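haha ok so turns out i had the wrong file open the whole time. this is the CORRECT one, sorry everyone. sequence first:
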Amino acid sequence: MDFVTPVMDVATRLWSCTSRHSSYVIDLEENLCSLRIEMEELKNVGEDVKRRVEDAENHQMRRRNEINGWLNRLDALGREVNEILEEGDQEIQKRCLRNCCSSNCWSSYNNGRRIREKISAVSELKNEGHFDVVADRLPSAPVDEKPLEKTVGLDFMFSEIWKWLEDDKVGIIGLYGMGGVGKTTLLKKINNEFLKTKLGFDVVIWVVVSKPANTEKVQEVILKKLEVPHYEWKYGSKDEKSQKIFNILKAKKFVLLLDDIWERLDLTEVGVPRPNGEDNMSKVIFTTRSEDVCHVMEAHKHVKVECLAPDEALSLFRMKVGENTFNSHPEIPTLAEEIVKECKGLPLALITIGRAMADKKTIRRWDRALQVLKTYPSTSSTFSGMEDQVFAILAFSYDSLSNGPIKSCFLYCSMFPSDDEILEDELVELWIGEGFLTESHDIQRARDEGYDIIESLKEACLLDSSDQSEKHVKMHDMIRDMALWLTTKPGEDKKKVVVKERARMVESRDIAEWKEAHRISLWDIGTVSLLDTGHKMPSFPNLETLFLRRSSMYEIPTGLLEKMPLVRVLDLSYNYRLESCWQVHQLVNLEYLNMSFTSIKALWNIVEGLKKLRCLILNFTHIKEISISHLSSLQLFSMHGGTLEIACNEQKTLLEELENLEYINEISIILDSDISVKKLLSSFKLQCCIRKLHLQFCSKMILLELSPSCVQAMVHLETLQISSCHDLNDVKVNVEDKGERGFISRYSMVLPKLCKLHEVHIISCSKLHNLTWLIYAPCLQSLAVSACKSMEELISGNDGVVKENSGLFSRLSTLQLENLPKLKSICNWVLPFPSLKIIYVHSCENLRKLPFDSNTGKNSLEKFQAEQSWWDGLQWEDEAIKQRFNSFFMPSEYMDLHQVLGYGY
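then structure:
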């Protein structure tokens, strides 16, 4: 029986290996294959996660800690799996029947068990790798990069200032010098250097101060940069804002860059802890035109920014002229040196004149330019006289303007406040009211002429594009000062212009000096009493233009307008409290009247007797009573924006009165009844005049149908907004022949007739299903669709004719889709969108696929803003398309409609 026990022991061991845990050994090879497959799938998930993290980090986002943890576990598990796979492969190679029964059975068992466990571990980690969010948005960058072209002649001064920044004993630095010398450019260069070399500073804050210094404006810029929630400070007092700023900055090492200071700015009042080189190692750097400001600001160091040396000036000038023009004739370099000498090293003059000469390739033009420059008188280089010297140089660009009207239009821009963003539409309408434009008898042609002038002024570097909106322009403050200087120079046709802004007090001596003025522009003055100096109101026998904007007045001061018999242009817009201005009817020569953004309720007693009035603008008002039948000269009527408060019957009467005016040729209007809409659509004259049309609260309007004749008449329609028309089911452009051949012929006829429709905004039309009618708007530039709960697709169907002939959205630059819960499609075929710059999508959870390919927005797209979760769930034709659009994607939770589109009224 002694041999029985070993035999039974072997049998027991065999039974243990081959029964309960036999699968670990038997399925070893199959399990190894499963582990490899699972690991490959896990690696793919890992690559996806890493790519998402990389894309997020490229967009200034920070990966989550759980992502780091998961990736570390992935790496560790990968090493373990590789080791097990290697051992498993060796085990399979060594397997044979005899060692299955030896201790190798336990080795096979252990390997098999570990493989099975790793399959579970790999599967579990793979399932965990499907993250909804991989990264969070970072706080704003401590330094905002400023746009900066290549600089000339600033390196030495920059290096000196940088040494001061590294010196703990220097806390406040002043940069002073004449206007246009490059102080702001130097400050931008300093700002941008902090992107590379932070010197231990926590934040760099940039503020444009201008004059007069506005403490609360400075506070708001600082609070926004510090990312203090809006609700915490918006309605606080100046002292409360100051305390909040102080509490934050005292714990930081900061750099505060203040551009364009004209007088002492009290840092303590703002809330900025004063750098003292002892316990506060922060820095304040400012620019100013006066050395005295450096003293009153108690700068520890200050330096004068000098004009460029001759060789540096020539280098800058040559850069702006361009090598092609500079080398177009052997004598041009010599003449260029003479012109540079006349500019006296002033960078702004060199840049402005250099650009003006960029297309001048004949010796005659260069000779003439040099002679013109030499005719300007030299003046003292002291602070009090430097303006004349600067303006005499800058005026060269003004004198180079082609004709009288464009010069008048340029000078007119100086009537707006410094640093003001000027709405192009508003500017052109004022030029029309003044009669500057040769086509003033035809408003539409005058508009085109006005926009051409704006472009010409931009090209001449006398106007700049706005940073915020394509619909606005701005004027450099040095150019503006030069324009004001030109209006006060003695000589023929030099009309005196008075501009006063942000004034708390208008003194009697000021009013006395204004008696001879031809144009007066008052902005942000206080209350009515500010104009009541206690002295007898003088007469203004020469006054032709009066701007009285953004005041706190409830009524026009008694007796003011009756002293201005020749006024032709009166702008009272943005006086939100203004309720009474009945004296306007005394201005019998008035041709332009703007009362937008006021609280005027009735119009009849204001415009009564204004037989010469050509332009009447009432945007965003709350007028309840209106009659214009007696305005026999009216050409332009604008009353849109906000909420209409005129009764339905009176709306229809207003349209009838407009229709009966002989000279009317442009109308912008808001309508809120189907009766008014029907009147508009039945009048050929009204349709021909309509420019901006806003339909809102038209509760009984189920269908908006435009006949071919109606579309053909609306040749000037530029903007269409339909809002809160909750019963509207469809918008149709009707065609007579319903067959395809007829559609093609009728489509080709109708299509060009909507070529001026540039903007369409559809808001809160809850029953509207699609916007297929947009195929008739080939020049559409901006489309916003918001809060249309039934909208399923923008362009319905997949009609080959539309695809081939429409040029759909070929000029669209801005697309906004917001709060469209049922939207599934923009259109059913790929579109190139060759002009598309900005896309904004929010709360469109069912829109999973876009009509994009690799060529969409190829040379135009700038940014694509949407929710991160929505973006991650988009379906793409291939990974390459997704990666291309990833480079433009910016996570965004919400953005206001006006902020996206950047439009004015």
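DSSP finds 34 helices and 28 strands in the chain.
again sry for the mixup
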